[in-house]
Design a protein that fits this description.
Layout lengths: L1 H28 L9 E3 L3 E9 L5 E8 L5 E10 L4 E7 L11 E9 L7 E9 L5 E6 L4 E2 L7 E3 L3 E9 L5 E8 L5 E10 L4 E7 L11 E8 L5 E9 L5 E5 L10 E2 L2
Antiparallel strand pairs: 1-6, 2-5, 2-7, 3-4, 3-6, 7-8, 9-18, 10-15, 11-14, 11-16, 12-13, 12-15, 16-17
């Protein structure tokens, strides 16, 4: 009788342990949407990085920006947020260049506090310094495909398409950047990259190489060939002369790739 009672007690205790960990599982499976590709801005614009604590969890993180060599730009902000609270950090393009129309590529960065449970969701936006009107809004991602996948993007003779990649620490980015037309044929130049973690590179395709008259459009496909992964990409269409972004295109975070890595 004692043996049966002990056995039943042991079974109930094991069941309670299983249920306890099952209740914890959903909180542990949540992802932090805090990773970004490169984003371009010009003088007269501001890049703002926003972060919110995903309810009901807190968010402990440090916000910042870095240049194409992985060096910090501007100030940083360390936040301690309760569920539903948010904070922002801004980087004025006027502090990056004195030349009107000159684009500067920047990567927003969110570093989660080590050893602390945290659930954060970030986003970035570019707005005009004079009017405050947003022209670009980009959500943070939990991870990216090992091979970035894009769709077609239209460009005119007044615009340039730019393809960016950044090597997300701790991995390098080794591969080739290019563009293809609607028939799948390569157009413009190619760029071979071998980037250390934190470094970035860009390849431009001026619309004037594809169309010859005002109002004419050409569709192009940004292509990143990176067999070993590690390259986080973004594509932008910007206005020649002004440098302002008219289209911003991040790749599908988990696209057609079978592998989605969390930087």
């Amino acid at each position: 009788m004692t043996t049966k009672l002990q056995s039943k007690t042991f079974w109930i205790m094991n069941l309670l342990v299983v249920l306890m960990f099952a209740n914890l599982a959903p909180a542990q499976s949540l992802s932090n949407y805090t990773n970004f590709p490169m984003i371009g801005l010009v003088r007269g614009q501001t890049l703002q990085l926003n972060i919110v604590a995903i309810p009901p969890d807190p968010c402990f993180a440090t916000l910042g920006f870095q240049d194409v060599n992985g060096n910090p730009l501007g100030a940083t902000l360390t936040v301690t947020l309760q569920g539903g609270q948010s904070a922002s950090l801004a980087l004025n393009g006027n502090s990056l260049t004195n030349t009107p129309g000159q684009r500067v590529e920047v990567q927003p960065t969110v570093t989660l506090a080590a050893g602390v449970a945290s659930q954060c969701s970030a986003s970035t936006e570019i707005y005009d310094n004079l009017l405050g009107i947003s022209s670009v809004a980009v959500p943070g991602a939990a991870g990216y495909p090992t091979i970035p996948i894009f769709g077609m993007i239209g460009v005119t003779e007044l615009q340039t398409v730019r393809l960016n990649v950044v090597a997300y620490p701790p991995d390098p980015c080794v591969g080739e950047l290019s563009f293809a037309n609607a028939e799948g044929a390569q157009v413009g130049n190619t760029l071979n990259v071998q980037l250390a973690p934190g470094q970035a590179a860009s390849l431009d395709l001026p619309g004037t190489t594809l169309v010859t008259k005002l109002g004419q459009r050409a569709e192009v496909l940004p292509v990143v060939t990176a067999p070993n992964g590690g390259c986080v990409a973004s594509a932008e269409v910007w206005v020649i002369g002004l440098g302002t972004t008219s289209v911003y295109f991040p790749p599908d975070p988990c696209s057609a790739s079978t592998n989605c890595t969390v930087p």
